[in-house]
Amino acid sequence: MAAVLAAETRLFLREPSSLFWILAFPAVLLVILGFVPAFNEPEEGLGNRRVIDLYVPVSILLAMIMSGLQAMPPVLAGYRERGILRRMSATPVRPSALLTAQIALHGVAALASAVLVVAVGRIAYDVPLPGHLPGYALALLLALAAALALGATITGLFRTAKAATAVGSVSYIVMMFTAGVWVPVQAMPGTLRRVVEFSPFGSAAQALGEAAAGQWPSWSHLAVVALWTLVAGYAAGRVFRWQ
């Protein structure tokens, strides 16, 4: 497992595009949005918070969506398509070690991006640090688990790297909307917000926003994210094939 993880880490670090989109792009997006003057003014309809405050958790979720739905599925599907997983099954190293290494690498990259986004928000725009750190951490980990589980499901359902990339891209755009990339979930109209909150990242955005404001995240929001994680994880286990 250690040897596989070391090898996959070297390969992962040789992909500058993945590193940029997962690690750097969410922080860059936050910096760009911070240049909009209106985003730095408190709004009564947002509980006297600024739009830029809401975009910190949104940018964090963007990194997770990119990691789980856009970056990981083509890698694993490509390994299977080229017969790498099948050949590994004939060696003492099990293919599951490769799957575990990929999930770990993309998960760590998304968490590193989250730390970077929080730091940029605090230093550049004086965004307060999460007021309820345990609740924030729990919502963060649940959202990451949901993203990786959904990515694993895509990998299992679509057997080629090209198909996994196409489906991952479509899913990525949909999940970006539900996470509030274009309009923060808290600023959406009531009916649309309630619909979006049934999605994993819509609920995750709400949970992170509540924890950032110093409250324990709503159990209903945490439950929605956890349910998506369990369902996607079960589906991935049922449909994933090594060859």
UniProtKB/TrEMBL annotation:
Cellular localisation: Cell membrane; Membrane
Pfam family, one: ABC2_membrane
Annotated ABC transmembrane type-2 domain residues: 17-243
Entry-linked InterPro entries: ABC-2_transporter, ABC2_TM, ABC2_TM_bact-type, ABC_2_transport
Keyword Transmembrane carried by entry: yes
Bilayer-spanning residue ranges: 19-39, 54-76, 97-124, 136-158, 165-185, 218-237
Membrane topology: Multi-pass membrane protein
Keyword annotations of the record: Antibiotic resistance, Cell membrane, Membrane, Transmembrane, Transmembrane helix, Transport
Family designation: Belongs to the ABC-2 integral membrane protein family.
PANTHER family from the UniProt entry: DOXORUBICIN RESISTANCE ABC TRANSPORTER PERMEASE PROTEIN DRRC-RELATED, TRANSPORT PERMEASE PROTEIN
Designated name of the protein: Transport permease protein
